[in-house]
Design a protein that fits this description.
This protein is mostly helical. It has two domains: 1-94, Orthogonal Bundle (Rna Polymerase Sigma Factor, Chain: A), CATH 1.10.1740.10; 108-195, Winged helix-like DNA-binding domain superfamily/Winged helix DNA-binding domain (Arc Repressor Mutant, subunit A). Helix content is 71%, strand content 0%.
Length: 195
């Protein structure tokens, strides 16, 4: 059954089918909410906000109109607004990655030095993404983590496709610039004092 068929059935009173609709999107919405909250150290409440998103979607399902957006776009928009509302409540409280208690893990087959460098790079990339303005961060997460196309991202953010491409270009450029010192630093250290 397609999303449209499920929604019609749910609107016609077959509400138990909403569980199937939730199951289709639960992992994607959770991942999106988690990545949006990570920069503020609120990722522990990702599950709660994911459930709140589905609750809000269920309560508003009667207002959903397919001609305006796909169900997934509509659901991502609800998730985004739910996260932004929660972030406003917490006034964008910043928690350092050390305080978050999360340390990336590497496979046992790699050498300790490689593991340390990989973990450091993961943390630097995460910090670079976390430092992006909200719309750039959201666009990047939707594109890179959730693999949404430009039109879906545009619908979620209320932007044009060209504006989304611009947001993504600026986000990637910003991450690249933030990572540049990490990548280029060893080259310049080796060449110091050669004159």
């Amino acid at each position: 059954m397609t999303d449209s068929q499920l929604i019609r059935e749910i609107k016609d009173g077959n509400v138990e089918l909403y569980a199937e609709l939730m199951q289709r999107y639960e992992r994607k919405i959770y991942a999106f909410v988690y990545h949006m909250l990570k920069s503020s150290g609120l990722d522990a409440i990702a599950d709660d906000l994911c459930q709140e998103t589905f609750y809000k979607a269920y309560r508003s399902l009667s207002t959903f109109r397919e001609v305006e957006a796909s169900f997934s776009t509509w659901l991502y928009t609800i998730a985004r607004n739910t996260v932004l509302s929660e972030l406003r409540k917490h006034k964008y409280a910043k928690v350092s990655l050390e305080q978050s208690g999360h340390t990336p893990e590497a496979s046992a087959e790699t050498l300790p030095e490689q593991t340390i460098l990989r973990n450091e790079k993961v943390l630097l990339v995460r910090n670079a993404i976390n430092n992006l303005p909200e719309k750039q961060r959201t666009a990047l997460i939707l594109r890179e983590y959730d693999q949404l196309d430009y039109q879906e991202i545009a619908n979620i953010l209320g932007q044009t496709v060209s504006a989304v491409k611009s947001l993504l270009f600026r986000a990637r450029a910003s991450v690249r610039i933030q990572m540049e010192s990490y990548v280029l630093e060893p080259i310049f250290i080796d060449g110091e004092g050669m004159n």
